[in-house]
Amino acid sequence: MESDATHREPLALPGKTFSTARMMRATVAIRVALAAAGGYLVAALVGVVLAQWLPWPRADNVIAGMLAALLVWPLAAMFCCACRSTRRACVSMAATVMLLAAAALSHGWIS
């Protein structure tokens, strides 16, 4: 006898069309790609910004930026999966990348 807690819905429900299942899979694929690529981009930019803005010697700044990037990447990936919608995840990641890129460029990242 199954209880309500252990009951799981099948992947293909009679009321759902094939295109809805495809849309759900595409949404998951987009979130995974965004978590990997966007998380890497955000982490790399955090490392660059910290390497430029910290007041320590250059080598210490680079190491601190790299270590912070290792913490930021999984957080960005978890954020992509925790957002209510894929659109919100994309917009949030794009805004974060633009802000970090502006901060890096304002301090002379590419000279």
UniProtKB/TrEMBL annotation:
Provide this UniProt record's keywords sorted from A to Z.
Membrane, Transmembrane, Transmembrane helix
Q: Which regions span the lipid bilayer?
A: 32-56, 62-82, 89-110
Keyword Transmembrane helix present in the record's keywords: the answer is yes
Q: From which domain of life does this come?
A: Bacteria
Q: What is this protein called?
A: Iron uptake protein
Task: State the species of origin.
Answer: Tanticharoenia sakaeratensis NBRC 103193
